[in-house]
Specification:
Helix content: over 70%
Strand content: under 5%
Number of strands: 0
Distance between the termini: 49 Å
Radius of gyration: 18 Å
Structural class: mainly alpha
Number of helices: 10
C-alpha cells in the first residue's frame, strides 16, 4: 500500500470512527449516564477492571494510528472514569503511544511516517531539526503546549539524533500539563453542551 493510500484509509477510518462515536454518545445520552452519576456508576459497574485496560489500549492505538480524534478520547476518559482516574488512564495511554511512535519512526524512518502524515506536513517542521539542541527545546515546548501537533512531532523526533532518554523525560514531564488542560476544557465544554441540549 502506498503512503497516499494509507493516509486516505486513515482519513476514511477517522470519518467512520467519528460517526460511531456520535452514535454511541446519543445512546449513552439516552441512557442518562451524562446527567446521572447513579446511571454512570451502574453502567460501569461490570467494567471496573476491563474498562480501564481497554480504554488505555484504545488511547495507545489512537496515538499511533490517528483514526480517533484525540480530544474525544481524552474527554471519554474523564467523563467515564472520573477526573483523577481518567487523567491517569489518559496519561498512561498517551505516553506509551508516544514512545511507540518515536521508536517506530527511528526504526522504519521517513517512509513509515509518510504513511501517516503528508510530506508537506512533515517538512513544515523539519527545519527545526537542523540544530539538535534547539529542536530538543522546541519539541519540549510544543509537547507542553495544548495546540501543537504532538503525534507528528513525536514521529519527527524519531528521525533526529535525540537521545531516547531525552525524549522519554520530555514526554513524561510535559504531557501531563497538556492532558490536564485539554481534559478540563473539554469537560466544562461538554457539561455546557449537555445543559444546552437538556433545556
Amino acid at each position: 500500500m502506498s503512503p497516499e493510500q494509507s493516509r486516505k484509509l486513515i482519513n476514511h477510518l477517522t470519518i467512520v470512527s467519528t460517526i460511531i462515536i456520535i452514535l454511541l454518545c446519543i445512546y449513552w445520552y439516552n441512557l442518562g449516564i451524562f446527567s446521572s452519576q447513579a446511571a454512570m456508576e451502574a453502567y460501569l459497574a461490570d467494567k471496573q477492571i476491563m474498562g480501564p485496560v481497554i480504554f488505555i489500549l484504545i488511547q495507545i492505538v489512537q496515538v499511533v494510528i490517528p483514526i480517533i480524534p484525540g480530544g474525544v478520547s481524552l474527554l471519554a476518559g474523564v467523563v467515564f472514569f472520573g477526573a483523577v482516574p481518567g487523567f491517569i488512564y489518559n496519561y498512561i495511554g498517551i505516553v506509551v503511544g508516544s514512545l511507540i511512535n518515536f521508536f517506530l519512526a527511528r526504526y522504519y524512518g521517513k517512509s513509515f511516517i509518510l504513511h501517516i502524515v503528508s510530506e508537506e506536513s512533515l517538512e513544515k517542521y523539519t527545519k527545526w531539526t537542523k540544530n539538535q539542541k534547539k529542536f530538543n527545546w522546541f519539541f519540549a515546548i510544543c509537547i507542553l503546549a495544548p495546540v501543537a501537533p504532538d503525534d507528528l512531532l513525536c514521529l519527527l523526533a524519531g528521525l533526529t539524533e535525540m537521545k531516547p532518554w531525552t525524549y522519554f523525560w520530555i514526554i513524561v514531564l510535559c504531557k501531563p500539563w497538556t492532558i490536564a488542560a485539554y481534559s478540563l476544557g473539554l469537560v466544562y465544554g461538554a457539561k455546557w453542551l449537555v445543559r444546552l441540549i437538556g433545556k
